[in-house]
Each structure stands twice: as C-alpha cells, then as structure tokens.
Amino acid sequence: MQEDNPGMTSADISPSPSGENVAVATRSTMLQLTNVDTFYGPSQVLHNVSLEVKSGEIVCLLGANAAGKTTTMKTIFGLVRPRHGTIEFEGGRIERKLPGDIVRSGLVLVPEARRIFPRMTVLENLEMGAFIRNNRAEIKEDLDHVFQIFPRIKERIKQVAGTMSGGEQQMLAMGRALMSSPKMMCMDEPSMGLSPILVETVFNTILRIRNEGVTVFLVEQNASMALSLADRGYVLQTGRIVLSDTAPNLLTNDLVRQAYLGGG
Ligand code: ATP
Questions:
Q1: How much distance in Å is there from the Cα of 40 to the middle of ligand 1?
Q2: pLDDT tens by residue, 119-169
Q3: If you measure from the C-alpha of residue 152 to the centroid of ligand 1, how many angstroms do you get, rounded to a whole number?
Q4: pLDDT at 12 over 80
C-alpha cells in the first residue's frame, strides 16, 4: 500500500468537503485526459473530453445513463482506444498502453457491476488482484491490510465469490483492486444496485482509501453521495464535459440540482 502522496506537502493544507485535510495548490497532476474523442465503430461517444485528477484528490464524473461514463473509464484503461487526444498518468502517455501495463504503472480500475471472478473463492479473487506483483511478503502485508479494511471479506475467504451479496462483492472488487498496490483507483459506479446503508459504507471506505494515500477517480449516477465525498467534479452530458467545479459549488449549481439531485 502506498504510504503517502508524492505531490502533497504539509504546507497549504485546507479542509475538503468531507472534513479531511487535503493539500490543494501544491498537488501534482496524476491523471490527465486532453481532448479525448472515443468512437465505437462510426459512432462517436466521447467528444473532446479533458479532465484532470491531482494527487490525493477524490474527483467524480457525474452523468446520466449513456452519457459516456463507462466509456471514459474504458478509454483510460486501454479497453477502447481514443481516436484523438492524449491520456497521461504521472506525466507519461498511456493511451496506447495495454491494460496490464497501465495497472503496473499504479492505476487500477474497479469496474462497473464489480466484475469479480464469480466461480473463484474470495481469496483467489484477491490473489488475482496481485497478478502484477511477485514479492510474497508485500502481497501478504497488503492482504492483511485489505482484511483490516474489510473484516467481512476476511470472514469469507473460502466462499465462492459469486454467492456473496452485492455489497460484499463491491467490497471484494475494491479489495482486489487494492491488491495491486495502486497509486490511484478509478471506480465505475460503486454505488450501483446497493442499499442506501451499503452505499454509505462503500463511500466511507473510499474516503478511508484516499486518506491512506490512494487518489480516487469515481464515476457515479448517485450525484449527492458522490459530491458529499469528492473534492471536485465534472459533469458529462452526451459525451461532452459541460461543467467542472469544486464539489460544494456543484452541489448548489442549478444544472446539477435539476438534472442530478432531483431538485429545483
Ligand atoms: P450507464 O450509466 O448507463 O452505464 P454510461 O454513462 O456509462 O451509462 P456508456 O456505457 O459509456 O455510458 O455508453 C455511452 C454510449 O455508448 C451509449 O449510447 C451506449 O449505447 C454506447 N456504447 C457503449 N458501449 C458500446 C459498444 N461496445 N458498442 C457500441 N456502442 C456502445
């Protein structure tokens, strides 16, 4: 597990909306998308998407069904290639890299609908998360750390993962991602299909993960929860970024309130 954020200093600390102390002005950029266009065959889904996530931040990407949120994640991880534009992680270009190499560089995805390996046990799923590593002692250390964050997962290490509840599978998917010892975690709709209480547990865990040094980029339809947690956010509409601001400003923004928070 990474202990600290290279871009953070003890100077210039200010409170985030979630009440945690995070450095603001001195953070380095971890992930940057610049003018990204993504197509499926002839149909263009992402139009000139630019966004950045800085070290130590939680940034959310909000959008309705079919806005292109999952496509953004797939583009970042090399699962679809952008036709134009660049993607950089810690200053290095990744838009032509293979997904495994992207994970090796410290960027990991918790995919939509969890996508754990349903026929494998919980422990086997977690071990799969460490596929890029070979230091057994460090893997064991991280496994113990994952069990500390998710005690419930520890209780179930021998269980076949597909028989667990949705909430447990989400915890497992997050635990599996942590097993790659990431610097940054991208999460595609972690609240999807979960009860309100489980959504709260998942979001508290995301905060904990960030506070332990992992930068977070989060794609969500649950705008109110995402904005209560995030430092900043972007709004994606039909494949275009139409708004970007701090989370508190987005919470009071008319467009966001009307379109995503069910209010006027
Ligand atoms: P949701 O919240 O419903 O998952 P989303 O914002 O994640 O939506 P995407 O899954 O990125 O949206 O889809 C954006 C658009 O791209 C949709 O119109 C979808 O039908 C289309 N699309 C997604 N995957 C493919 C694909 N493999 N081939 C063709 N079109 C696709």
A1: 9
A2: 999 999 998 888 777 788 888 888 998 898 888 888 889 999 999 888 888
A3: 33
A4: no
Q: Which residue has the higher pLDDT, 224 or 31?
A: 31
Closest atom of ligand 1 to CA, residue 112: 4
Atom of ligand 1 nearest to the CA of 188: 7
Could you report the per-residue pLDDT of 161-198, keeping only the tens digit for each? Answer: 999 888 888 889 999 999 998 999 999 998 888 888 88
Domains and CATH numbers, the chain: 26-106+183-264 (3.40.50.300), 116-181 (no CATH)
Does ligand 1 have an atom closer than 6 angstroms to the CB of 193?
A: no
Q: Are 50 and 241 in contact (CB under 8 A)?
A: yes
Q: For residue 194, give Cα distances in angstroms to 168, 202, 225.
A: 10, 9, 13
Does the beta carbon of 71 lie inside 6 Å of ligand 1? yes
Q: Whose CA is nearest to atom 26 of ligand 1?
A: 40
Q: For ligand 1, say whether the CB of 131 is within 6 Å of any of its atoms.
A: no
233 token code pair:
């956010």
Phi (first) and psi of residue 71, to 5 degrees:
-65, -35
